[in-house]
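Quick illustration, no need to memorize.
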Amino acid sequence: MITSIDVAMTAPPKRRMSADERRETVLVVAMGEFARTVLQGTSTEKIAAGAGISHPYLFRLFGTKKELFLACVGRSHARLSDLFTQAAEAAGEGDRLEAMGHAYVDLLADREMLQL
């Protein structure tokens, strides 16, 4: 008979996430929270819980709530810039502004990114 102790002893150990991986997880959770409740209404405790980390560790990763918010805004700007660049490049010699406009309209479905 196999017991839970036997399974636990043979299961491979869980790999700990790196600080960069945890930062990524926090940013994903924080973008959703900031999009729904803006800077002042967003709870850092809720972000930490959603990311599966402690509240103090959230501040070790980002320093302040404002720094976390600015990291989210920076990510949104980078995504928009990348989207426009890709759309313009894909248009080739065609109408690049029109291609960028279509890409933006498609992006409107991502409410978290645009509401941020």
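DSSP finds seven helices and no strands in the chain.
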